[in-house]
């Protein structure tokens, strides 16, 4: 049974480390091909071999797909205007009695 490809929102929601098959799915690569590429050292992003397991940092998958992890639902997060943050972070530290 062929698994559905992951959406960009699903990829951004993945944990920091994922298994090789999930990374392959995110990149549109099948299970067998993912293992073949990992064994040959030619998987599109960094793969860590821990015992019998292959793990892939999600950051590498995001980089290959050119997805910004800070974007939610495909829209960039809004950076507050300077006037909105004025006074929010006092420079003098904590003052007390």
Automatic annotation (TrEMBL):
Keyword DNA-binding belongs to the record: yes
Region Disordered: start-end pairs: 73-97
Keyword terms of this UniProt record: DNA-binding
Molecular-function GO term, any one: DNA binding
Identification of the protein by name: DNA-binding protein
